[in-house]
Design brief:
This protein is mostly helical and 420 residues long. The protein has one domain: Growth Hormone, Chain: A. It is built from 17 helices and no strands. It is globular and about 60 Å long. It starts with 9 loop residues before the first helix and ends with a helix.
Length: 420
């Protein structure tokens, strides 16, 4: 298959620019917030609360968001989402003004940050399903796997550069102007998005009652073993392997590398994932997808244990790099499963369930990491998370031989034959 097939569509290239700018801004913003909050409080639990403030609205509104996405035109809905994110970024920029910090108490600023993160969780509940649905309207079905790979690669490249720049920009220009850079990228994403035309609504059940729509979406996910297995496995791994939430503690108190070292640590997983994803455009991962996903998540757990025990900066960077490389495999396989197994009229609802299982587990994992670090100590918490990930992989492989044997080549062949 042509490794550049999806890139031959103009609107898909514009879509990648939009996704890069948004992910860059979002990932950079999260890092700057983490650094600012831990610098203010020196409390590991405060890092966990950041994740909790985003996961509560993201999970509670996810299914409703999926219903709305399936009922609405996707381009305009994404415009509204990015505009909402821009408003939140502007609010964080204002909160970090030196004059505000002098006049307001630390507690007021901290609670205001939490409130804006909470609003961001609502926006995020809509962004994921909208982006997932929009891809399917830009490229034909036969190149969904290629488009999913390029979309995930773009996501990871932005996730590399956002955290890395965040670490350096905190050192060079401070938190306040770093927030300004984030706001600028969100506006840039909005301008790019207007270059994509409106898309048809493929759902034949417009006006369907909300609860009936939600039941149908959940029924589909829980009856499709390939989707359910991929989402569950990744959710547990991310939930218990979320050591990245504790990186400010490692950078400041364990490895003693400051904000610049923090940026390198935060970017290392994304660098590994980006390299994996670029390689996968030439070496597809759809054959023996189940085994590859299980091995990737097992490798992720090993890397978390190594990172947790390391007191060497470069060993820590290497462990995070490899964790990102194997996580890239997991992400590509999962996205390919979702794109191939989901009918067009249910993409919003399925993507919402995906965000509940996997996307929100990042923030819930951040809370779990912060809480266990508070109770057990930072190193013990990370090692515990990695061990739970290994146990999850072993249990999944044992109880689900069907998932172990999952191969996506047949689905790809069927989509290609449908277009001939």
């Amino acid at each position: 298959m042509d490794p550049y097939a999806a890139l031959r569509y103009r609107e898909f290239n514009i879509f990648l620019l939009v996704r890069f700018a948004m992910v860059f801004a979002w990932s950079m913003q999260f890092i700057v917030i983490e650094w600012q909050v831990y610098s203010m409080t020196k409390d590991p639990l405060s890092l966990g609360i950041i994740g909790l403030m985003e996961v509560i609205p993201a999970v509670s509104t996810a299914l409703f968001a999926g219903h709305i996405v399936d009922q609405k035109e996707k381009r305009n809905l994404l415009v509204k989402c990015i505009f909402g994110f821009s408003v939140i970024s502007l609010g964080l920029f204002i909160l970090s003004l030196p004059s505000i910090e002098l006049r307001a108490s630390q507690q007021i600023i901290l609670y205001s940050i939490y409130a804006l993160v909470f609003l961001g969780g609502i926006v995020r509940a809509f962004i994921g399903p909208t982006i997932f649905s929009l891809i399917a309207l830009i490229v034909p079905k036969k190149i969904y796997p290629n488009a999913a790979t390029w979309s995930s690669t773009t996501w990871q490249l932005a996730a590399v550069m956002g955290p890395a720049l965040a670490g350096f920009s905190i050192s060079w220009i401070g938190v306040h102007w770093s927030m300004c850079v984030i706001f600028g990228f969100s506006v840039l994403a909005l301008l790019f998005l207007f270059q994509i035309g409106r898309k048809p609504i493929l759902n034949p059940k417009i006006g369907e009652p909300v609860f009936q729509s939600l039941r149908e979406g959940l029924r589909f996910v829980f009856s499709t073993k390939a989707i359910l297995g991929a989402l569950t496995l990744d959710m547990i791994a991310v939930l218990f392997g979320g050591a990245v939430a504790l990186l400010p503690i490692y950078a400041q108190d364990i490895l003693h590398v400051g904000s610049e070292g923090f940026g390198v640590l935060r970017a290392a997983p994304a660098v590994g994932a980006a390299i994996t994803m670029l390689g996968s455009t030439r070496f597809p991962l759809h054959k023996n997808a189940g085994k590859k996903l299980l091995l990737a998540v097992f490798g992720f757990g090993i890397c978390m244990i190594v990172f947790g025990l390391s007191t060497s900066f470069w060993l820590s960077v290497a462990a995070l790099f490899v964790s990102g490389a194997v996580d890239g495999i997991s992400m590509i396989v999962r996205q390919t499963i979702l794109q191939l197994k989901t009918p067009d009229n249910m993409r919003g609802r399925v993507a919402s369930v995906n965000s509940m299982f996997v996307g929100s587990s990042n923030e819930l994992g951040a809370f779990e990491s912060g809480l266990t670090a508070k109770l057990m100590g930072t190193v013990t918490a990370v090692v515990f998370g990695g061990t739970m990930t290994l146990l999850t992989v072993g249990l999944t492989a044992f109880v689900s031989p069907t998932f172990r044997r999952l191969d996506l080549q047949k689905d790809i062949d069927e989509h290609e034959s449908d277009t001939k």
